Amino acid sequence: MKSNIKEGTAIYIKNFMKPKYRIIENLSDVAVEAWGNSPEELFAYMGQGMFAVMTDSRILARDSYKISIREDCGSSYEEAMVAWCNELIYQFETSKVLFSRFNINKLALQKNTQIEAEVWGEPFDQNKHEIKVAIKAATYHQLKIEQNGQWRCQLIFDI
Q1: Residue 64 scores a pLDDT above 60
Q2: 22-57 burial string, b = 16+ CB within 10 Å, else e?
Q3: Which of 47, 27, 20 is nearest to 103 (CA)?
Q4: CA–CA gap between residue 39 and residue 2 (Å, rounded)
Q5: In the predicted structure, residue 13 carries a pLDDT above the cut 60
C-alpha cells in the first residue's frame, strides 16, 4: 500500500449540510451507516461518521491535507471503503490530525484502488478534543455497499 499525506494551506470551511450518516453502537464494536448521491459523497460521509464515533468534540476544518491511496486490494467499492477508512485511521494515529471535511477528487477501481482526496481538519489537542472511542480498524464483517437511488454503506469498525 502506498499512502501519502501532505499539508496544504490553512483554510476554514464550515459545512452547513446535515450529516448523512448514523452511528450504530453495541458492546464489542461500532458501525456507521452512511449514504450519498454518488460513491464519492458516500466515502466523504463515511469519513465524517467515523470521526464522529471517535470524538464528540468539534473538529475545525482549519488545515487542508492531500491523501493519496494506491492499493492492490481489488476493484470493489467495499475493498476501497475499507482501504479509505483504514488510511484515515492510520493518518490519525501517525499524524495526530482529526478530520471533519472530505472531498474525494478521484475514486478509481480498475486492477487496484486509487483514491485522491482533499481533507480538512486540525491537529489533535488533548485540552480540546476527547477521544471517546479508539477505532482500531475498518472491517469486512457484514460490510455492504448498495445503490438503490442513493449509495448506502454499512461498515463495522473494530474498537
Answers
A1: yes
A2: eeeeeeebbbbbbbbeebbbbbbbbbbbbbbbbbee
A3: 47
A4: 22
A5: no
Rg of the chain taking only CA atoms, in angstroms: 15
Residue 131 is classified by DSSP as B
Residue 107 burial (CB < 10 Å; 0-12/13-18/19+)? buried
Q: Which helix (H) or strand (E) holds 97?
A: strand 97-109
Residue 99 sits at φ, ψ, to 5 deg, of -110, 145
Task: Give residue-wise pLDDT tens across range 83-97.
Answer: 999 999 999 999 999
Give residue 17's pLDDT. 55
What lies within 8 Å, CB to CB, of 152 at 6+ separation is: 33, 34, 35, 42, 145, 146
